[in-house]
Fold:
Amino acid sequence: MILITETGGVLNISHTQIERELFKLMAYVGSANLAERAFGVAYQPEHTYILALPTSPNATTCDVQYVYNLQTQAWTKWTLPGLTFGAVNPDTGQLYFGRSDGTLWIERKDFAVSDYQDPGFTISSPTATQTASLVFSGDLRTGATPFAVGDIVQQWQAVNALSQRVTGVAYSSTNNQTTVTMDKAPRYAWNQIVPLTIVKAIPCTVRFLPFHAGEPLTDKNWDTAYLSFRYCDLDFMSIGWASEKYPITASAVERVNNADGSANAPINLETWGSGTWGSKIWGKQTRDVVLHCTIPQDFDHSSQLTLSMVLPCALSRFELNAIDVKISGATDRVVR
Structure:
């Protein structure tokens, strides 16, 4: 793909990032179906360009979208299903997508908690028990009813409201079943008569350039890392590390808002709900959250250290303020 600007001239923006993946998809889908189905949207309010493509020769909709950010000059991929066209409302700056069922998806821009989710769906409950695992027939990792880590499973019963976070999705080809694992069992049993409402998470993957301290790039003993958030109401995130010696990233799930103060909990300023209502923090601590992330032993001795984060929680937002990485336990020098 080519970017043409008045100051920069002509620039190939796909060559080093998604060109190979695009060529493979285009060869599989075929030029005829691409010419009929594919579309692009210039999303100027967010400084992005969206390229929507079908995923098979017989596809009648565009189920994958490649998004280019003009500011970061990086591509990301969306998997919104059933799209037929897209446009931007010039008055409100909202993104519109046409759907194969004749409906419209209109972007939320209220800056409320409801903004932080992708379009969800409803599905029948497979059980009437109080359990943290739901087993569905078929492969529900993709398609019209896809489950993913970070989604919220809700059920509004006559008296009770159930809401649990998805922490794992596994498919068994032997049994043709998808097992959805949640953070814990709800307080009350699921109801098979009332459908489940799935609030979809917006996957956010961040990978930083390698950290290093000074020149030349000699090996250093990295100690511990701290992530400081100005605002953070995530339940968990996945933290990954890599170095020039071990390019395969080691990752671990860090729980952000453990009210019980257990292992992997954030560094708390105060105990949650320790006083009467209105006198102290009640519920989640969401401002000035400091998270302690341990660096695995294989990555604590290198000249460069790369941090990646996956933040997939629906109805949640974050504002990363700083990253502090100690060079060794015997010094106060840090890389910020």
